Amino acid sequence: MTEKERTGDAVAPVYLLTGVEQLTLDEAMETIERRLKRTKEIETIHYDMEEVPVEAVVEEANLLPFLAEHKLIIAKNASFLKASERSKEKVVHHLPTLEQWLDSPSPTATVVFVAPYEKLDGRKKITKRLKKVASVVEANRLEGQELVNWLKASLIKEEVTMDEPVMHELIGRVGENVSLLQKELEKLTTYVGPNGVITEQMIQELVTRTPEMDVFALTDAYVKGNRTEALHIYRDLLFNGEEPIMLTALIAGQIRLMLNVQTLRKKGFERNQMAKTLKVHPFRITLIMRMGQLPPSAHLLRMLSELADVDYSLKSSGMRRDRPLELFLMDRSAH
């Protein structure tokens, strides 16, 4: 968006919302709708670009509104902007129709193309054209200090205070998912009230870890030989309704990731290079790198072999369902 569009009431005829941070995409969409409604009676129409061709959007935009002054047309899943295999596409889009329409967008419609993807194909003519003509909002994933800065801005808006180490504790419990962080922040700000101070103790008492973060904490404790902590987390997860089979698979996946990080680290890979190579969120790499020295590869491989045995026992033996993984976590010989 231009500065005028960001801070005032200006609305562009065409928008491109792109990126994977859903909260940012939602906020941008709400801003566009709110600004349109300030000055016009609008009719909102939704299209899914994975179900209908883009020509339908162009045709809709060219038709005069029937029961309102202006149309807001939301074209979600604009997959024709990313690299894709044609054989897997359900819909064939006639992109020259869109390119021609972009030369002279309809004055009675605002069209929003939503492309919720990590990356668009910048080589495509339509991607270049749309980026040039449209007002673009990039909802890039927030990481590291960017996420801390987002938290600081949110805290100022909510008129509450949180020290930076406490922010890291919050991120450590929830992960780098902005939507989840927003929900937990709303809970905390309601608890402390205006001008309140959010403490580490409040985070520990009020913020629920995601299962993924709990599995990381469990795996971290187990790999470091802290059986008591690992068993404590495991029993909490069972109490919260998590299934031993799923937990076994998640722990195995975490150990497999440790092995891969260990291998790539020896090759001199940086965090973002590892994340791209392994196709995982960079925060998962960060968590493993914070663990410091990992066990030798042979130990990690043995753990994976034992987890395969746990998985087999869970699926075939008459043993109590929580018992095979519990015995694995109690085993001293793994360290």
What spatial order of strands do you see in the largest sheet?
A: 2-3-4-1-5
CATH topology of the largest domain: Rossmann fold
What's the total helix number? 16
Euclidean distance between termini CA atoms: 54 Å
Briefly, what CATH class of the largest domain?
Answer: Alpha Beta
What percentage of the residues does DSSP assign to strands (E)? 5-15%
Q: How helical, in percent, are the residues? A: 55-70%
Could you give the count of β-strands? Answer: 7
Describe this structure in words.
This protein has 335 residues and is α/β, with parallel strands linked by helices. The chain has 3 domains: 3-139, P-loop containing nucleotide triphosphate hydrolases (Rossmann fold, 3-Layer(aba) Sandwich); 144-206, Orthogonal Bundle (Helicase, Ruva Protein, domain 3), CATH 1.10.8; 211-334, Zinc Finger, Delta Prime, domain 3 (Up-down Bundle). It is 57% helix and 11% strand. It has helices at 3-7, 22-39, 54-62, 95-102, 125-133, 144-158, 164-174, 178-192, 200-206, 211-223, 227-239, 244-266, 271-278, 282-290, 297-316, 323-330; strands at residues 14-19, 42-48, 70-76, 109-115, 135-139, 161-162, 197-198.
